[in-house]
Amino acid sequence: xxxxxxxxxxxxxxxxxxxxxxxxxxxxxxxxxxxxxxxxxxxxxxxxxxxxxxxxxxxxxxxxxxxxxxxxxxxxxxxxxxxxxxxxxxxxxxxxxxxxxxxxxxxxxxxxxxxxxxxxxxxxxxxxxxxxxxxxxxxxxxxxxxxxxxxxxxxxxxxxxxxxxxxxxxxxxxxxxxxxxxxxxxxxxxxxxxxxxxxxxxxxxxxxxxxxxxxxxxxxxxxxxxxxxxxxxxxxxxxxxxxxxxxxxxxxxxxxxxxxxxxxxxxxxxxxxxxxxxxxxxxxxxxxxxxxxxxxxxxxxxxxxxxxxxxxxxxxxxxxxxxxxxxxxxxxxxxxxxxxxxxxxxxxxxxxxxxxxxxxxxxxxxxxxxxxxxxxxxxxxxxxxxxxxxxxxxxxxxxxxxxxxxxxxxxxxxxxxxxxxxxxxxxxxxxxxxxxxxxxxxxxxxxxxxxxxxxxxxxxxxxxxxxxxxxxxxxxxxxxxxxxxxxxxxxxxxxxxxxxxxxxxxxxxxxxxxxxxxxxxxxxxxxxxxxxxxxxxxxxxxxxxxxxxxxxxxxxxxxxxxxxxxxxxxxxxxxxxxxxxxxxxxxxxxxxxxxxxxxxxxxxxxxxxxxxxxxxxxxxxxxxxxxxxxxxxxxxxxxxxxxxxxxxxxxxxx
Length: 654
Known about the structure:
- By secondary structure, this protein is α+β, with helices and mostly antiparallel strands.
- It contains 13 helices and 31 strands.
- Among the domains are: 79 residues, CATH 2.40.50.120; 135 residues, CATH 2.40.50.140; 104 residues, CATH 2.40.50.140; 130 residues, CATH 2.40.50.140.
- The protein is elongated, with a radius of gyration of 35 Å.
- InterPro entries: DNA_repair-scaffolding, DUF4502, DUF4503.
């Protein structure tokens, strides 16, 4: 704020005002009595309450200055005084928790405003107000009503109506009695299944208008109609773990709690992220994607968890930017909603509300039988060759690829469930390329990307065709982050945009090791054995059930092996062998190429197996020198220039 400016002076005035109100309320609570000074005190009885533009409006009757011994029910109504319309701010209304028939003392400096063409005066500046409860009957009524939720009628006033824009449809909609909820203490009977909790709600089509009119606490009496653009899971924050421990979480990513989330968009193009609680259903997130994406739904009972901006949530806004501009014209706030006035020439959203649900109620109504909304934008599927040519940064992309190999990043200081995983994928657009573009691409899956158990089990079983939805592309890397979804089946609705999505027909080819090969990639290798690292050549038995490589001698029978993990005797152990060899490769003639070759369950080339057996049996280096190594599939650990060395490990593709 500019020093000495109007905004700074207003901010100081508001701070002093809040301090004065807090001090006055604290003094009233400390004295445990109503202030004795009755000069200028306005005493009113509430007849009706409703809310308009976040202000609580109370229709009241003024009472005479009654003796302190009389209860509010015994106070005499002054028929000569007109009815008053008393305005309470949201904070004051929350402090008073007033209901019809309550008696309120309003202390100075309250003000009376007389409006033209209106018979009812308006009382403002009611910050110093106190509810009076003197009789035992009133206290009992307060305790009884305190158990039920007071439903306040909220008059929805649109901007078009406020500024008298010529929109007859909007005026008729706002004047409709459907927007009115009875103002009376009501208790919903949980056993009455015929009444839906949202049956009497008014429907709005603007998220921003609902937030501004209903506030951050949450709205229950009205609904917002939106379109579900994306369905995904997010890792639950630590604060939500205790909340969901009593319920079964929807998904678990390595033991990490997750929440089902919806990215929704209203008729004005406004986005919000709705974080749902665990649904207690056995369905996978893939099922919710198929059932909900593209459908219209009504939200109710939402409360604002956070108002985030582009600078605070780059991942969220990269997803929003991929859905912008809208595929159909959207409404413009404050303008006539005729079709010729709608436009898509709008700047992308700069903020987004993160919404969450009030616990214990139904808040999301999805009409699964409804047709797909015209506002819905399905993921645009591209070939990997096309994605690698995208010049932008932090661009969302979707593609269909064959997973050839997966590798968990071995950072021992990081827990296993928080480590990144590399998936090496390819498709027909890469396999058909002669040169210039790699035939295999590494996709980094971060710990924040929630993977379903179905995906994890499928990747463990073998090579899979996986649909990567809304992955992040930037700086030459494809990354699966928060809000990226991996599916085993292609969505029913997706835009191919002319991409070649044909499946692989022949064997998969890897790029051969050359001067362009980078670390943390996979390649094919051929060369001649020129040396063996004798100190690392060894073999060891492993458990045939769990793969445990630390077997012990069985105490009962010294000739048998025992597995501590299985707590059983291992009668048929699996022999693993490892050997490090140095190769001379024509493609990298200036480099020392060291390859770690291994044998497990016969999953290795016949040449390497014979070479390892020959060396381990004779333990003579000369027996393997000069042997030609065919095409081996290898993972590149590191590439250094000083010394000029390439370290690889033989791998088995899925």
